[in-house]
Amino acid sequence: MADALDDRRHCLDNEDRGREDQADIEKIREKLRIAQEAKAAGVSSMRCPRCDGSLKESEFEEVLIDTCEKCGGVWLDSGELEQLTQRDTTGWFSRLWFSEG
What we know:
Structural class: alpha+beta
Oligomer: single chain
Strand order of the largest sheet: 1-2-3-4
Shape: elongated
Mean pLDDT: 79
Number of helices: 3
């Protein structure tokens, strides 16, 4: 009898976890939908880490960067700094990062 009750509890626990997992999946899908709509509108769904303003995607030296509409901060995603330094082999940006000494 105890085995049957344990099995029932186990099944109920699995059902609860399944519902929780489904709710988490729906939250992630909603976040992805919001991010896709923002990207299509040219606005990032992310907030500025400095002032919590809206980030707008813009092109600089053929690299898409995020700029805060509130404080003017510039935020780079993974790999964007490398792309910018590769394009600027003789300018101030390159000298700043690759100076010897």
